[in-house]
Design a protein that fits this description.
Elements lengths: L1 H17 L4 E6 L10 E4 L1 H6 L4 H17 L3 E2 L5 E18 L32 E18 L4 E11 L5 H16 L10
Parallel strand pairs: 2-3, 2-4
Antiparallel strand pairs: 1-6, 4-5, 5-6
Length: 194
């Protein structure tokens, strides 16, 4: 009986854990030869407009710098590419249903009265055998833009969306590092024919 009561909580935890992955997308200028870009600098006017705290901004920029260096870029006063960021956030409300229930109105009830009339989830017409769990989270999206300073054009944009972590500083920094790593994992784009 206790195991049956623990199942909805366990299912909700597993669903929340599976939602913690980063969804990544990117777009790029097909006419760009990305192998020409070897140096970078941050584009301060764009970064100043990003609507996140200064502490998170520093975390994001450190993570981007680490990823750019790992890809063979060097930081420069005369960069071949500028890096900018912007962010979006929205509250998400998720309703999770588990299909647990036996008895008259439960999911597995057979015949007009199910197994013996009443049982788990079979306490009347108001109970359809479903339990609803509601979870609220803030979904954040980080955009990383790479700009060609000579052409003054956006050449690549990566975005990553994931639930945000609040409170614990270490977990927050870990989440930011993960989001940046996942976004930069799709740079440079795999251009057909290369």
């Amino acid at each position: 009986m206790k195991a049956l009561r623990l199942f909805p909580a366990l299912a909700a935890i597993l669903l929340l854990a599976s939602c913690s992955t980063v969804r990544v997308a990117s777009d790029y200028d097909k006419g760009t030869n990305f192998s020409e870009y070897k140096t970078f600098a941050f584009y301060k006017p764009g970064i100043d407009k990003a609507e996140i705290s200064d502490l998170d901004k520093k975390r994001v920029l450190r993570a981007i710098e680490a990823e750019m260096l790992a890809k063979g870029f060097t930081k420069s006063e005369n960069p071949t590419v500028l890096v900018s960021i912007f962010t979006k956030a929205k509250e998400r409300i998720n309703v999770y249903q588990n299909n647990f229930g036996f008895g008259r109105f439960g999911r597995f009830g057979f015949g007009p009265f199910g197994y013996g009339g009443f049982g788990f989830g079979g306490f009347g017409p108001w109970n359809n055998g479903f339990n609803n769990n509601i979870a609220r989270s803030t979904q954040g999206t980080l955009y990383i833009d790479l700009i060609d300073p000579e052409k003054n054009q956006l050449i690549w944009q990566g975005q990553g969306s994931a639930p945000l972590v609040t409170g614990n500083v270490e977990k927050r920094e870990e989440r930011i590092n993960l989001i940046v790593k996942e976004i930069m994992g799709v740079y440079p784009p795999q251009v057909a024919g290369n």
